[in-house]
Amino acid sequence: MRAEYVNSFYKAIKEVFELMIDIVPQRSNMRMVDSLVSNKDANVILEVKGNLQGTILFSFPQDMILKMMKIMSGMDVDKIDSFASSALGEVANIIGGNALTNLAEQNYICDIAPPQIFVGEHKALSIVDEKALQLTLTTPIGEFDITISLNENQSE
Amino acid sequence: MMWKDKYKIGVELIDQQHKELFRRVSDFTETIRNEQNWEDKLDKVKETMVFMQEYVIAHFDAEEAYQEEINYPDIENHKEAHAKFKEGINDYVKIFEEEGFNEAKIQEFGGRLMTWLIMHVGRTDQKIGEYVRSKGGQA
Q1: CATH classification (class only), B10-134
Q2: pLDDT tens digits for A5-16?
Q3: Which residue in B1, B4, B108 is closest to A82 by CB distance?
Q4: Shortest Cα–Cα distance, B110 to chain A (Å)
Q5: What's the mean pLDDT when you consider all of chain A?
């Protein structure tokens, strides 16, 4: 796992969160994991294809998502319903798009598939061929994880 | 209210229109999310959606006219972003017309619309303000 993959996503997360949620997440823990596990209340998966291929998993606790929705909409949101989950998926999609723009500057040309959102499912989503990198980010409204499993596509 | 002063671009005409756009999207969002029974508020949902859609088109047209007026160099990319935004709305409108105004689907649309609007005004439109400032204009 190259550092530029992680840095591209971290930079995109900071920019999108600052614009949309008015906060800048800070890196805390980073660890290698064997599988993509949804260990929080709501999860968004982005599949990456192109010069790099693999999966990005965002995992958020419910309380943090509800606070994010309040900051964005100005309204109280008391559960992760279709409104909240689609907004969350779109935020992750925008982060993914920005990260791919950052990667393109380093000559990795990739696309992402539409986000898949899983709410309330704590389960292993897939076993990855090589270890994935899981980064925990802290914010004043909670902690969330991003797990990055990306490899260079040998057939490209 | 979804509007925040940090979304201002520093051009009075556009900022006023953006505030109105956010107001109409907020009205739509509040309507679909209030506690009232879905069937009872369906007419209001449709009304606020049409009211929001009309203003999206009117504002995008006005903003593009302003960009032409100031010879904004990135106008073609910006027009493309507007076209994609409208296409995103129209795709959902088509679903509602064909499959009915299903509550979960409209909530899904509301969540996406809010995100698209914040990204477009909060980032893409900021470049118009930067251009105006670079030319010594108001900001």
Answers
A1: mainly alpha
A2: 999 999 999 999
A3: B108
A4: 6
A5: 91
A72 lies within 8 A of chain B by CB: yes
- Tell me the domain boundaries of chain A: 3-152
Phi, psi of A22 (to 5 degrees): 65, 25
Q: Letter for the amino acid at B55?
A: Y
Look at residue A155 in the predicted model and tell me its pLDDT: 73
Please compute, for residue B7, the number of CA atoms within 13 A of its CA located in the half-sphere on the CB side. 22
CB proximity under 8 Å: B 97-116 to A: 104-105, 107-112, 114-116
Task: Write down the ipTM of this complex.
Answer: 0.93
Fold of A3-152: Chemotaxis protein chec (3.40.1550)
3-state secondary structure chain B: CCCCHHHCCCCHHHHHHHHHHHHHHHHHHHHHHCCCCHHHHHHHHHHHHHHHHHHHHHHHHHHHHHHHHCCCCCHHHHHHHHHHHHHHHHHHHHHHHHHCCCHHHHHHHHHHHHHHHHHHHHHHCHHHHHHHHHCCCCC
Q: Do A84 and B26 touch (CB under 8 A)?
A: no
User: What are B53-91's pLDDT values in tens digits?
Assistant: 999 999 999 999 999 999 999 999 999 999 999 999 999
Q: Do A86 and B116 touch (CB under 8 A)?
A: no
Structure tokens belonging to residue A154: 């040998």
Tokens of A61: 């606790």
Which one, of A48, A10, A3, lies nearest residue A144 by Cα? A10
Among the partner residues B110, B118, B123, nearest to A83 by beta-carbon distance: B110
Residue of B nearest to A74 (CA): B1
DSSP assignment of A108-126: --EEEPPPEEEES--SEEE
Spatial distance between the Cα atoms of A20 and A69, rounded to a whole number of angstroms: 10
Which residue in chain B is spatially nearest to A95 when comparing CA positions? B119
